[in-house]
């Protein structure tokens, strides 16, 4: 993963009023922490931050963060957004080493077309939008892809069944269901009705 340069400035004023002034000027307040060092309050340009996080790597971009002439390799650990406008209101950066294994959340995306499911009138439900993985910063994938082209009605795909890129391991329950192919609604309703009927008959016999 290529590194993206981002210039930050040390932030001397703290508090919500100072943060509002920064946001009004187009800058995003934030903090850099990690490796046992004291957290550094900083700010970055809003447009520059959005550009840095708009690469293929998304929010897991590996950043070459420049603060007062000092370079820090970092990743974004947390983004806070305005509850209504959804604009970024604060960002936490974590300092990392190139050989350090970190735990991050990456998107889980579906690729391909489940034609057998569609022909049968079923539906594909995407249950897991993101998963926690462990990797060195340069090995963090943009997303984990799930190929659904071979799915049949009734099939499901577990997190542990995904093909992971080299250098990447799961940091989540491998038994988590990622995607499931449901039968047609009418068929499912009939099966449910039959099961309820059988249960009722069993109750009467007893």
Fold blueprint:
Layout: E1 3-10, H1 16-24, E2 27-34, E3 37-45, H2 46-52, E4 62-67, E5 70-81, E6 88-95, E7 102-111, H3 115-119, E8 123-126, E9 130-135, E10 143-147, E11 156-158, E12 169-170, E13 177-182, H4 185-205
Parallel strand pairs: 1-4, 2-6, 7-10
Antiparallel strand pairs: 1-3, 2-3, 4-5, 5-6, 7-9, 8-13, 9-12, 11-13
Features:
2 domains, alpha+beta, 206 residues, elongated, RNA Polymerase Alpha Subunit, Chain A, domain 2, Ribosomal Protein L25, Chain P, single chain, four-stranded mixed beta sheet, six-stranded mixed barrel
Written overview of the protein:
The protein is of the alpha+beta class and 206 residues long. The protein folds into two domains: 94 residues, Beta Barrel (Ribosomal Protein L25, Chain P); 102 residues, RNA Polymerase Alpha Subunit, Chain A, domain 2 (Beta Complex), CATH 2.170.120.20. Helix content is 20%, strand content 42%. The strands form three sheets. The protein has a six-stranded mixed β-barrel. It has a four-stranded mixed beta sheet with strand order 10-7-9-12, with no helix packed on it. The longest helix has 21 residues. It is elongated, with a radius of gyration of 24 Å. It starts with a strand and ends with a helix. The mean pLDDT is 89.
């Amino acid at each position: 993963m290529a590194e993206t340069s981002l210039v930050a400035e040390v932030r001397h004023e703290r508090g919500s009023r100072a943060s509002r002034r920064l946001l009004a000027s187009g800058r995003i307040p934030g903090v850099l922490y990690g490796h046992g060092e004291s957290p550094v309050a900083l700010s970055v340009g809003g447009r520059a931050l959005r550009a840095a996080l708009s690469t293929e790597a998304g929010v897991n971009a590996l950043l070459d963060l420049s603060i007062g002439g000092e370079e820090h390799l970092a990743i974004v650990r947390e983004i806070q957004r305005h509850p209504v406008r959804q604009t970024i209101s604060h960002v936490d950066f974590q300092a990392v080493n190139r050989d350090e294994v970190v735990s991050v959340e990456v998107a889980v995306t579906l690729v391909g077309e489940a034609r057998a499911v569609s022909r049968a009138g079923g539906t594909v439900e995407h249950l897991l939008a993101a998963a926690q993985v462990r990797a060195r910063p340069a090995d963090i994938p943009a997303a984990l892809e799930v190929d659904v082209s071979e799915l049949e009605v009734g099939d499901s795909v577990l997190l542990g069944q995904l093909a992971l890129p080299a250098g990447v391991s799961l940091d989540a329950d491998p038994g988590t269901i990622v995607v499931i192919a449901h039968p047609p609604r009418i068929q499912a309703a009939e099966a449910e009705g039959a099961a309820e009927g059988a249960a009722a008959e069993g109750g009467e016999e007893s």
